Structures are given as C-alpha cells and as structure tokens.
Amino acid sequence: MTKAEVIAQISEKTGVEKVDVQQTLESFFTVIKDTLAAGENIYVRGFGSFINKKRARKVARNISLKSTIIIDEHFVPSFKPAKVFIEQVKESEELKAQL
C-alpha cells in the first residue's frame, strides 16, 4: 500500500478531504522524524513505539580493498509494534488465506 492509497482510504473512512488528510499525515511524519532526530522516543498505546536503537562501535572489512574500517557507534530509527498490534496481525484471516 502506498502513501496515496493510505490517504485515500483515510479520506473515505472519515469523510475528510484528501488534501487535509495528506497535510495531517505529512505533519505526523515530520513530528516523528524531528522527535527521533532530537533523541526522544514516541510511544503510541495500542499501536507501537518509534525508538532510537543504539548500534555499538564495530570493526568491519572492506573486502575489495582488503582493509578494515571502524564504524563508530550510532543510532538508527526503529519501530516496535505493540502486543495488541502483533496479535491482530497474527490472527488476521486475510494473511492466513494468502498462505
């Protein structure tokens, strides 16, 4: 599903104009990016958590140059779904039908 399809579906279900839904969704994404960039996490009950995961410093190899490089510790954004969310996906009849 693309972002345009998500916007269309939200607009259909709520009766809100697509332009307004798009602005709201874009603002939501901006808030998430800005908050994670500031080092804070976002917790949405029943949905999940947008968190920064710390990656430890490590030594890697560049095989083509036959040299080692050091990758410093850094943070990567991550999403951890809530238990309710996970259970809903596990119990989904549509996903079971695809198997």
UniProtKB/TrEMBL annotation:
One of its GO terms (molecular function) is DNA binding. CDD domains: IHF_B. Keywords: DNA condensation, DNA-binding. It holds the Pfam family Bac_DNA_binding. Belongs to the bacterial histone-like protein family. This is HU family DNA-binding protein. It comes from Ravibacter arvi.
